[in-house]
Amino acid sequence: MALLEVRGLVKRFLGVTAVDHVDLAVEPGELVSLIGPNGSGKTTLFNCVTGYLAADGGRVTFRGHDLTGAPPHRVARLGVSRTFQQVSVFGRLSALDNLLVFLQQHQEERLLARLLRTPGLRRLEAVAVERARRLLDLVGLGAKAEAPAGSLSYGQRKLLAFAGALMPDPELLLLDEPAAAVNPTMINQMKEHILALHREGKTVVLVEHNMDVVMDISERVVVLDHGQKIAEGPPEAIRRDPRVVEAYFGR
Amino acid sequence: MAADGALLELREVVAGYAEAEVLRGVTLAVRAGEIACIIGANGAGKSTLLRTVFGLLTPRQGTIRFAGEEIGGRPSTQVLERGIGYVPQGRCNFPAMSVEENLEMGAYLRRDARVREDIEALLTRLPMLAGKRRDPAGTLSGGQQQILEMAIAQLLHPRLLMVDEPSLGLDPRMVEIVFDTILAINRAGTTILMVEQNAKKALAVSHRGFVLELGRNRFEGTGQELLDNPDVRQHYLGS
């Protein structure tokens, strides 16, 4: 059974059908990229899957749970984590604290445990801090752990958000243009890390315009144009597909 | 001593925000008529450099000379009047106003009567915008907005146009169009200083490139020299 299954998804904005009857099935452990011109519906699809937008039609299921119309926090707690193109961070919190907040958004509130500061909770917090530091090192922000996130450059905030999406150790990771504004050497490290997650058995759906990333690491590429799926297949086939060349790659 | 033909010249510029020192002594010169680009790791100070030249930050040390005149610490309006245009990272036009109104806003500082003519000339050169002249700018695609921002900046006829990550978030076809537009602006006589993470593409169209590292300039050369430099390739170009 597919881990994520999108069937006949429709999303309209005023007169425009941004997502037009899209089917997408992602198997457990798959690494799939979603590409297409600006405005082809990629981010809208992510937003419908993660509950940030209510779809106008179709169904979304994850691990057999019906997610159609579920709010973002419920989607997150089932094990879906995502990044956003437009990153927002808590500017006055440190980079490290930002990661802890990301994590908290994925956990059920245990208010009593929090109030009593039980040993179990403190242990969990110590583990989370260690994980956050490891992820900051991974994205080259180790030296910025205590710096306010507001002092980071735009590219560094993107990297912080990427680390944040990994904090909850999600089952399904949806990455929306993680490589944009990131320098090429760090993009290589990001690629390595996505591949490492893939080897661990995590499922990744990647929206990205950087074809070095898409073609190097994807098992399968799905192409959207004007809200419709126009092609789907292994990277080599997609690169040569005349419809995709016409709609996306251009010359 | 001014570098030969330098339009913009930074010497030992130190600048930053509050206690964070971002630029730690940057020295570079952009010659009149060329396309120069700055590449480097995230947080190296690339955007801060453009912001400092544009007067959004005051240098703590060092000098910034434009066409021979010291401009370090001058307010942005004066920097604009002296002939420097700036398109910041991310698109930031007035989304509810039409394309045409956005262009009119770009000419806000001008007092002459030829604004209308200039806007028409720009729209003729940019058919992609001409077809959308009455549409709200917020309804344009990311690439169209980027081109609009560059068009707005041109209305003050800058001698130097600074662009921060023009390719950000754009699909491959739009990246080509945006770079072509930058080349066309340059051919029409405007000097370009851009910051790009699409480093290979940016270096390929640049006469000169600078690599910034931790607030200092580390490498400098023609675009091709940097593309061929093994250290630059390994540490900044990812190959």
The secondary-structure element order of chain B is EEEHEEHEHHHHEHEHEEHH
DSSP, total strands of chain B? 10
Percent range of helical residues of chain A:
25-40%
For the report, how would you describe the main beta sheet of chain A?
6 strands, mixed
Oligomer: heterodimer
Note the overall shape of chain A: globular
Strand percentage of chain A: 15-25%
Could you tell me the strand content of chain B as a percent range?
25-35%
Distance between the termini of chain A: 39 Å
Average pLDDT of chain B: 93
Low-confidence stretches of chain B: none
Q: Largest contact between protein chains?
A: A-B, 33 and 35 residues
Spatial order of strands in the largest sheet of chain B? 6-7-8-3-9-10
Q: Biggest β-sheet of chain B: count, sense, barrel?
A: 6 strands, mixed
Describe this structure in words.
The complex is a heterodimer of chains A (251) and B (239). Chain A has helices at 42-49, 72-77, 95-104, 111-116, 119-138, 154-166, 184-199, 211-217, 235-240, 242-249, and strands at 4-13, 16-26, 31-35, 57-62, 65-66, 80-82, 172-176, 203-207, 220-225, 228-233. Chain A is α/β, with parallel strands linked by helices. In chain A, helix 3 (95-104) packs across helix 5 (119-138) and helix 3 packs parallel to helix 6. The mean pLDDT of chain A is 92. With 239 residues, chain B is α/β, with parallel strands linked by helices. Chain B has helices spanning 46-53, 76-81, 99-106, 115-125, 127-130, 142-154, 172-187, 199-205, 223-228, 230-237, and strands at 6-17, 20-31, 35-40, 61-66, 69-70, 84-87, 160-164, 191-195, 208-213, 216-221. In chain B, the strands form 2 sheets. In chain B, strands 6-7-8-3-9-10 form a 6-stranded mixed sheet, sandwiched between helices. Chain B has a 4-stranded antiparallel sheet with strand order 2-1-4-5, covered by helices on one side. In chain B, strand 7, helix 7 (172-187) and strand 8 form a beta-alpha-beta unit. Chain B is globular, with a radius of gyration of 17 Å. The model of chain B has no long low-confidence stretch (mean pLDDT 93). Classes of the chains: A alpha/beta (251), B alpha/beta (239).
